[in-house]
Write a structure and sequence with these properties.
The model has no long low-confidence stretch (mean pLDDT about 95). The chain is α/β, with parallel strands linked by helices. The longest helix has 16 residues. Strand 2, helix 2 and strand 3 form a beta-alpha-beta unit. It has one domain: 3-Layer(aba) Sandwich (Glutaredoxin), CATH 3.40.30. The chain has a five-stranded mixed β-sheet, covered by helices on one side. It is built from five helices and five strands; from the N terminus they run βαβαβαββαα. This is Thioredoxin. Belongs to the thioredoxin family. GO terms for molecular function: protein-disulfide reductase activity. It comes from Cellulomonas triticagri.
């Protein structure tokens, strides 16, 4: 499955309408991004059940700012509309596979309960 380009207009719908979405924030001038790109593409081929999406931070500067992207590449993973992973830096293929496996294995009822408990604790 090919990766999908996301924009400020399409990101929310993509995240909410798909079970798992991985988003790679990148820029054309970024050498680590260029090294991570093929790894991300390979993952999209290996996991057609997961939406692999990319955000060009140069074209989508406002979106990158809203999501507090301060370093690229940054990988975010969403499961059932919830941000469950957020890390800057190019991942090697085995590390990306670990992220995919971990996101797939999440108990989302438990995740939502933890989020609710954290929100209640903050008051």
């Amino acid at each position: 499955m090919a990766t999908t380009e996301l924009t400020a207009d399409t990101i929310q719908k993509t995240i909410t309408e798909n079970d798992i979405v991985l988003v790679d924030f990148w820029a054309d001038w970024c050498q680590p991004c260029k090294r991570f790109g093929p790894i991300f593409e390979d993952s999209s081929d290996q996991h057609p059940d997961i939406v692999h999406a990319k955000v060009d931070t140069e074209a989508e500067q406002q979106l990158a700012a809203e999501l507090q992207i301060t370093s690229i590449p940054t990988l975010m993973a969403f499961r059932e509309g919830v941000l469950v992973f957020n890390q800057a830096g190019a991942l090697p293929a085995p590390a990306l596979q670990q992220v995919v496996d971990a996101v797939k294995a999440l108990d989302m009822d438990d995740v939502r309960a933890q989020i609710a408990a954290a929100g209640a604790a903050q008051g």
